[in-house]
Amino acid sequence: MGGRRCAHTPSLPLFEEGLPCEGAPLLPVREATPAGNRRFLMLHGPGLAAERPAVWTLRFSPLVGIWRDEGLLIETSGLPEPEPDLLRRILAAFAATGHPARGLLGAAPAALAALLRAGTRPHVLDPGQEAAALPRLPVTALALPEEMVRALHRLGLRDVAALEAQPRGPLARRFGRVIAMELAALRGTIAPFTPIRPPPRHFIAREFLSPLVTAPGLERAIGMLVEELCAGLVHSGEGARVLRLTAFRGDGSWQELGQGLGQASREPAHLQGLLNRRIEELRPELGFEKLLLAAEVTENLSARQSALPGEAATPDTLAGLLDRLGQRVRICRLEPRASHWPERAVRRVSAFAPVTESTAQARPRPLRLLRQPLPLEAVALLPDEPPSLLIYRRHSERVVSAEGPERIEPEWWRPPEHRPPRDYYRVQLASGARWWVCRRGEAGPDARWFLHGYLA
């Protein structure tokens, strides 16, 4: 099983492509399930205890984890499909991908894993069946070290019933806490479960009667998902900041598109437009059987008055434009920073970051500085006066006017720096060019001159 980033095949006519499958309703926002009513499906099989099979299994449930490096644990609480049908469908899907698996569906993950180790055939266990099957389990089916199992056999303790009949104190003194913790886990008291991915608060999924192959079919399917997702976001008063579209194929592979937004949004047209522009990155091949759209990061978003006809564009309009541009180029803006040194005076920040006003006195400076200042040679009538002639790469430029100097000293609020002071001049050359040049160090034979930028 594998996932890769991927581009759609040429558009082909397909009968009713994008039609949702009957019996596979949308998965709504999951409600919290009481701890005593949680249900799990444990899967054992070669190669299942890995990230790729776990991610592909997200097509069945948003809560999937790797259990003790021996299999997959899927939480099925709240899923609309009947448990026997769900078990058969998942086992058949794994068999079709060339990864046959055995599975048990019940309430205690540790008990399900122990029953699978003991060779129990796949089926659904109700709480009564699960509790009745545990006492007959051999200790070899428990997650205990081999040395401990051999020691228990020497003591005549060969099944769970014999272990549970022993006082916990003597067992703990001889074997430590391992046996007590395993027995508690069998009864569902302890069930550590870490999902392979944190479950999103809002997600929508659809399965399709015919696999999605063409770009128009994908666009229609994504439109349905976006509409339902935005309805849930409106109901909860939130907006999406990060979207993830996961497309599952029947061969055990999947492909994903991640889309960030500079500003929280729940506008269906805007979200669908962003995802539609990324469709060419998907490669359906034999087709996608299921799509899952999740709002992985959300923010509270209160309702706002939209602009009336003829009014200026709202901030949302600018945010939408920046989101679209951000899909093609990196977008940022410059923000002033408290520093006298030109190379520290501004920094790059997100285009969506709040605007901060600079308190520094505005000085005529270049809009952009040279990444690497260019060394110059300068001739001045007196050491402290502006240059009258500048030489760059053996080419002389006569200075017709100069303004300055602007003295910049090391900043006292920073750690001591070995930086000599600089004197900046705004000079106009006989050729008409205007340069921003600086003298590094005190005036004298050791001073060095540099071109730091071009003035407009």
Short synopsis of the structure:
The chain is of the alpha+beta class.
Give an account of the 3D structure.
It contains eleven helices and 17 strands. The strands form four sheets. A six-stranded antiparallel barrel has the order 12-13-14-15-16-17. It has a five-stranded mixed beta sheet with strand order 2-3-1-4-5, with helices on both faces. The protein has three domains: 37-186, Alpha-Beta Plaits (2-Layer Sandwich); 202-300, DNA polymerase, Y-family, little finger domain (Dna Ligase, domain 1), CATH 3.30.1490.100; 369-454, no CATH class. With 456 residues, the protein is α+β, with helices and mostly antiparallel strands.
**Share of residues in helices:** 10-25%
For this structure, the CATH topology of the largest domain is Alpha-Beta Plaits
Alpha plus pi helix count: 11
Low-confidence stretches: 2-34
**Rg (C-alpha, Å):** 34 Å
CATH architecture of the largest domain: 2-Layer Sandwich
* Biggest pleated sheet: 6 strands, antiparallel, barrel
C-alpha end-to-end distance: 58 Å
Arithmetic mean pLDDT: 83
Structural class: alpha+beta
Number of E strands: 17
Shape: elongated
State which percent range the strand residues make up: 25-35%
**Order of the strands making up the biggest sheet:** 12-13-14-15-16-17
CATH class of the largest domain: Alpha Beta
Order of helices and strands: EHEEHEHEHHHHHEHEEHEHEEEEEEEE
Q: Give the tally of structural domains.
A: 3
